Each structure stands twice: as structure tokens, then as C-alpha cells.
Known about the structure:
Layout: H1 2-35, E1 49-55, H2 62-68, E2 77-83, H3 90-100, E3 105-110, H4 119-127, E4 135-138, E5 143-144, H5 149-154, E6 162-172, H6 177-200, E7 212-215, H7 216-221, H8 234-244, E8 248-259, H9 265-282, H10 284-288, H11 295-305, H12 310-334, H13 339-342, H14 347-361, E9 366-369, E10 372-377, E11 380-383
Amino acid sequence: MHFIFTVVAGTSTLLALAGAAYSALCVWAAGRFCRQPKHSPQLDFEPPVSILKSLKGLDPHMYEALRSHCRFDYGEYELVFGASDPAEPAVALVKRLQQEFPHRTICVVPCPQSLGMNGKVSTLAQMLPKARYEHILINDSDIVAPTDYLRRVIRPLADERVGMVTSLYRGLAGKTVPSRMEALGLSTDFMGGVLVAREMEGGVRFALGATMATTKSVLREIGGLEALVDYLGDDYELGARTAAAGYKVELSDVVVETTLPDYRLGEFWSHQLRWARNVKDRRYAQYFGLIVTFGLVWGVLAVLAAPHAWWAWVALLIVGLSRLAAAVAIGRGVLDDPGVIRDLWLVPLRDFVALVVWVVSFLGDQVEWRGLKFRVRDGKLQKL
């Protein structure tokens, strides 16, 4: 039995030190992102833009999010909303926007057809022909953006080699602990992974749903939105196809905010597992490599298995400090998330839950989305 505990402690210590190295890599990647040269302003590049948003249900602080898109410091743009159901409650918010901002071009497009399993993409595909302009911006309905957002996101598209622009985002947590854990995970873990992938893969090869700026021409070249109507991770797929077509996917220097609901534990678990199984399905090798990102948990396990071993305590100290340093470097230094410092005490719990989700994700391919159960195969949703 002593031998088994020693093996567990030794293995956990090695994984903890690997986790410390990964955290250091996150800090380095965050520094590289912050020091990157900003895109030089091109005063002659401000094309008209169509902003597309699919409506489905009501998100927390949704009106404030939509309202932020009416206040952009930008020349000419339109807001195009799509609704698959005439009784969609979010349409009332759009009507309110039209009254508050009569000078803005704001319209709602009926999208009655169901083109595939992903209702959002099905709606977007029906909206796209109604968009007036060549330059397109797609983002989620709960995104809050600063006034210079559109200018900073569209600017990189002046380079014809850039086919898509995406952006980092932080979560505005609700009041529940699961909601705060998700926001913490976004700011201290997920976005760190995005920055590390950007450095290790020589650029971003996917997109994030918080921002997807592109053109109609690029969308046609990669098969259009109709080709994505059965994919769960449509944002990832859209960016991946753009990169595969030979275009650059640029990570903007602007950070936006997404509002998170007051998750109950079951809702939080379902959301985390859905995300995990989708990433596992699309990037299996990279997903398996996430084993090193749970360094803090491995450090605790090493100490529990060998409480009298000095090297286990040293490993825990190293990985603990490096994990917190990475959390602050990314959460505060890059994302300017005020909730990170407040919720640092939740990092160990959040990392433990994330490890459990990671393990369970390998035990199946079923996900729950909008009250329905699906199987994920090759990125596509198959209804059970």
C-alpha cells in the first residue's frame, strides 16, 4: 500500500510541475498578446457593416447588451435580428431599441425554416441574404461591447489576407457560485488556452462566438452558413474553415463581455459537459493534453498521498503560486475582469470541478442543449 501511495504522489507531483510550466506558458502568452503592436488606424477603411444576431429567449441584461450595439462610434452599420418564432419574446426588446434609437437601421427578419439541428445557425443562414453590406459581424445576443468595438474589429479586414476577426471575452457572473465559477473559468483558464494556442499554432485557427467579423465573399468561399447548420460548435467551425481556406484569423485587441445566468448546479454541469465534449470531438489531441492544466489539483493529490514528503509540498507551493499568477495575468492583465480577484478563492474548487468534467467527458458523446439530448459526432449534432 505504501508503494501505491508513493507512485500516486510521484505521478501527481510530475503532473503538478507540468501544470506549473503550463501556467508559466499562459503568463508568457498573455504578455505577448498585451505587447503585440496595435493595428494602425486606416482612416480610409470604414466599410458599412451588417451586424447579425439570432434571437432565442431572453438572456440576463440582454437589453443592455443589445443597446451597446446601437452606440458604436462608427460610420454606417445596420443591426439585423433574426427570429424563428413570431412569438419570440426578445423581439419586444428589438422594438424598444427601434424606439430609443430611431436613427439606427434596425430590423427583424422572420426565419421560419429549420435548416438543421443548430437553430442559431439556421436562423443566421436565413438572415444573411437580407444583410445589405459585404462586411458582416456575427456575435451572440448577450455580448456587451465598448463604443469603439466595431471600428477595432473591422480594421484588420483591411488586409485581404485576413478572412475573419474574433475576440476574447470575459464573463459577467450572476449571483450563484456555479455562475461565478464559470466566469472564473473563462477568465483564468479558457482564455489562457486561447492565447497559448495562438502562440503554439502560429496564430488562431478557430473563432469565438463573442465576435466573428468577416465578409460575404469569404463565407461563400468556405461553403456558406448552410454548411454549418448541424454543428454544435459553429463558431469554432467557422473559424477553422476560414483558416483552412488560407485566410488568417485575427484575434482583435478588444475584449467584450458576456452575461452569465444564475446557473443552478445541474445547469452548470450540463453546460460545462456540452462544451467539453464538443472540444474533445473537434480537437482530441489538444483536449487530452489539458490533463496538465489541472496542476493545482494534482499538487493537492500529491500532498494527500504523501503528506510527509517535502517534495510534494514544494510542488504544491510552486503550482499554487504559478496558477494564481496566471489567473491574475490573464483575468486582470488581459481581460480586465474585476471579478477575478474577488473570486480567486474559488480557483481550487473550480479546477477540481473542471477535472471531473474532463474525466466524465471521455465516458460518452451525449450532450444536452436547449432541453434536447443529442449525440456529437465529428462536430455535428445527432438527435437522440
